[in-house]
Amino acid sequence: MKFFTAATVMAVTSSLSVLSLPATATASASKSGKVGKASKAAKLAHTFLSYGESYSYSMSVSPTPTPTPFPCNISPEERAAQIRELLSTVSDSSLFDDQTTPQARALNWITNEDTIEPVLCPNQSGEGCKMGVRVNTLVQRYILATFYFATQGDKGWDECDAPADFNNPADVDAANAACTKMALPFFGRPDKRVGAMSTDAWLTPVNECQWGGVACWGADTPGLNLCIDQLDFVANGIAGTLIPELGALDSLRILSLGVNQIGGTIPESIGYLPRLLRLFMYDNLLQGSIPEALYGLQSLTHLFLYNNELTGRISPTIGNLKSLKEIYVGGNLFTGSMPAEIGECTDLVTLDLNDNNLVGTLPEELYSLQSLMAVFLHDNSFSGTISPSIKNLKQLAFLNLSDNIFEGNFPLQIGQLDKLCKMKYDHIFLFFPFHFLHLLFMHVVAMFNSSLKIPHISPTTFLLVT
Questions:
Q1: Would you list the DSSP string of 295-314?
Q2: What CA–CA distance (Å, rounded) separates 397 from 392?
Q3: For residue 113, what is the DSSP state?
Q4: What is the pTM of this model?
Q5: Do 417 and 391 contact (CB within 8 A), yes or no?
Q6: Model confidence pLDDT, tens digit, residues 450-462
Q7: What does the alpha-carbon distance between residue 377 and residue 391 come to, in Å, rounded to a whole number?
Q8: What is the per-residue burial (b if ≥16 Cβ within 10 Å, else e) of 233-258?
């Protein structure tokens, strides 16, 4: 096939004036022999003409290939720069410069290794999970990746650790098959949340709500759809430390990390989670004090921090926890006294301060908590007497005051607690009033290794003396 050059086209244009000659005119010029070289070009053009019509000629030129657009309509370099800038809103950007930090590793993963489709873009808007303002969903995914690296997920959680090769489908499938961790439902109703029953391995190319141990809000909660609701990793071999970025998960209601080997301190930012209901970090290696900000969690109902290495005092601002129902902080190294402000936690059902280094007398305000069902104060150094106001604890069923240094007479009013079913106090030196034996629902009162003076005991009572 022959192709016309630009010169040929110009010759055709010249010979036909404005390329609107009839075909007969072209033929006439050819017979007269006066057309010349230009008429030859015109003859070539004749095949594109039809008699009695006006024509325009255009060449068929192969178009220049359009470059494939970059994801997010920005270059990879610009995307990386924008991602770093975006994530600097939740992390100290200087941490990105040390490639060994969890933040730098998470940044590298989400920028260069995350294989989710479509590619996440830092310039998206109108999405996200922050209260009062919508932020890019890429931030939430980054926070979970940072948590993964900070808690040594890459060194082997018991379950749900990431695949060895993100680009190898076989590795991804194997990692998913090894993950069975689900977010336990805590709300006593059918679980309609996203991902609560999903068990994909972490960092796999699915929405992070599908990763094992994660549950997100559903579409029935406008503005919170696909926002993190729960992280549940009880007994999963988690180590390392907790990251401050967790405080940016404004949608989080349940953080359950008990029975692991997490060390370091509780991040202050945990106290900035406005929806947090349940904080379970028991049986770990946590140190330091309870952050003051944590006492500002007005939605918090359950605080389980027992069996750690926490120190310091229980803050008087505990009275701000108006919704608190259960507090378990036994088995730590807390010092000081029980704050009187505990009496402001009017919904409190369980108070467990056992096995610490607490001292002083029990505040009178404690006896105003009419919802209290269980009080565990054993293995401390509490002193003084038990107030007659104990009669106000009408719901009290379990009471353990053993291994303290209380003194004086045990008040007669305890006989009015008809729901008390188990009480233990050993190594405390109290004289028992006879009325104490009239508790109809007292099943067991154990007094081990004590020097108590007991009045005459009716054989029909349930008192057990050993």
A1: GG-TT--EEE--SSEE-SB-
A2: 13
A3: I
A4: 0.79
A5: yes
A6: 333 333 333 333 3
A7: 18
A8: bbebbbbbebbbbbbbbbbbbbbbbb
* Other CB atoms within 10 Å distance of the CB of residue 27: 11
**What is the per-residue DSSP string for 323-339?**
T--EEE--SS--EE---
175 membership: H or E segment, kind and range: helix 169-177
pLDDT digits (tens, 9 = 90+) for 274-293: 999 999 999 999 999 999 99
pLDDT for 415 equals 86
For tokens 């507090």, name the residue: 327
Cα–chain center distance at 286? 19
Q: Do residues 363 and 390 lie in contact, with contact meaning Cβ atoms separated by under 8 Å?
A: no
DSSP result, 95-163: GGGSTTSHHHHHHHIIIII---SSPP-TT--S---BTTB---HHHHHHHHHHHHHHTTGGGT-SS-PPP
3-state class (DSSP) for residue 81:
helix
> Comparing C-alpha atoms, which of 443, 445, 435 is closest to residue 411?
435
Q: How much is the pLDDT for 37?
A: 42
Compute the distance between CA of residue 461 and CA of residue 440 in angstroms, rounded to an integer: 9
Taking the C-alpha atoms of residue 194 and residue 436, their distance in angstroms, rounded to an integer, is 53
Residue with tokens 């106290």: 271
Residues in the chain: 466
Q: Is the peptide bond before 267 cis (omega within 30 degrees of 0)?
A: no
User: What is the C-alpha separation between 237 and 86, in angstroms, rounded?
Assistant: 31
DSSP state of 25: H
Q: What gap in Å lies between CA 104 and CA 93, rounded to an integer?
A: 9
A 10 A CB-CB count for 459 gives: 5
C-alpha closest to that of 273 among 301, 253, 292: 253
Q: Return d(Cα 136, Cα 83) in angstroms, integer.
A: 10
Q: What is the CA radius of gyration of the chain?
A: 38
Residues of the chain with pLDDT under 50: 1-59, 429-432, 434, 438-466
pLDDT at position 74 is 94
CA triple 352-355-317, angle to 5 deg:
50
Tally the C-alpha atoms within 13 A of residue 213's C-alpha that lie toward its C-beta. 25
End-to-end CA distance of the chain: 113
